[in-house]
Design brief:
With 151 residues, this protein is of the alpha+beta class. Helix content is 19%, strand content 34%. The longest helix is centred in the middle third of the chain and has 13 residues. It starts with 6 loop residues before the first strand and ends with a helix. 23% of the residues are buried.
Length: 151
C-alpha cells in the first residue's frame, strides 16, 4: 500500500529565514505560504511527489535538531560540495569531517554529503549506488568503496 514518503515537516525558529535557506536549493518549489501560522510548504523535485513543510515554533518553541535527506542523482553528488559552497553552505561527510571525502553506507549502498540548515537541522543529499548492498561492511569513504569495486 505505501508507495513512498510524501511529506516532512520541521519546526524552525524563524520561518522566513528558513524559507530563504531552502529556496536556494535546486528543485525546492514554493507551494503555499501561511503568514498567520508562520509556515511555508514546498514541492521537492517534481510537483505532487514529495513535500517539505516548515513551521515557526510549532509544535513548540523548542526547536529540536532533526535529520532528513534529499535524494539526488549520483552525478549530482559529485558536484554537491561545490554547489553548497557557492551558496555559502558548509558541508561535511557523515563523520562531520571535510566533505572532500564523501562517505558510503554499504548496507544500501549510497553516498552522501551533509549540511545544516539555519536551525541546525541535519540535511543530507544522498545518491544510491549501482553496486550490490554490503551490510557486513562499516561506513567507509567513497574512495575506499570505489577501490573495493575496482573503480
Amino acid at each position: 500500500m505505501i508507495k513512498g514518503l510524501f511529506e516532512t515537516h520541521i519546526n524552525v525558529s524563524n520561518y522566513e529565514t528558513s524559507a530563504r535557506f531552502y529556496e536556494k536549493l535546486l528543485n525546492i518549489i514554493p507551494l503555499q505560504e501561511d503568514h498567520i501560522r508562520k509556515s511555508k510548504f514546498y514541492w521537492v523535485g517534481k510537483a505532487g511527489e514529495s513535500m517539505l513543510g516548515i513551521r515557526e515554533n510549532y509544535p513548540s518553541r523548542d526547536v529540536q535538531r532533526q535529520h532528513f535527506a534529499f535524494r539526488v542523482e549520483l552525478e549530482d553528488i559529485v558536484n554537491a560540495r561545490n554547489y553548497l559552497n557557492e551558496l555559502g553552505i558548509e558541508s561535511t561527510n557523515f563523520f562531520g569531517d571535510s566533505s572532500e571525502e564523501l562517505t558510503v553506507f554499504p548496507f544500501m549502498p549510497a553516498v552522501s554529503i551533509y549540511f545544516d540548515d539555519p536551525d541546525g537541522h541535519s540535511v543530507e543529499f544522498i545518491a544510491m549506488l549501482d553496486e550490490k548492498p554490503r551490510p557486513e561492511l562499516n561506513i567507509m569513504s567513497w574512495n575506499d568503496w570505489n577501490q573495493l569495486h575496482g573503480k
